[in-house]
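Notes taken during the Thursday session

The instructor put the following on the board and asked us to keep it in front of us for the whole hour. The protein is Transposase IS66 central domain-containing protein. We were told not to look anything up and to reason only from what is written here. First, the residues (102 in total):
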Amino acid sequence: PLYRQSEMYGRQGVELSRSLLSGWVDACCRLLSPLEEALQDYVLTDGKLHADDTPVPVLLPGNKKTKTGRLWTYVRDDRNAGSTLAPAVWFAYSPDRKGIHL
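Then, after some discussion, the predicted structure tokens were revealed:
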């Protein structure tokens, strides 16, 4: 979580507020969005798809309790079938098992 990173930097004498770190994360997400969308399209358009979801603890803002979210993994890899297309993995998060990705 960003509050932990902010505290860790602070102990080293580098003051980085959570809002500053959050802004950096947001800017990176916007810059990488086209790449993520292209990767998603590439992985999900394959005829054969391997998928799995893994439960992950999610810390809710302002709450010390965690909620269980899901990290979904989708893999495209047909090398065993003779394909020369590059294998790829796309990860997605959903707050529950419904699989609606955020």
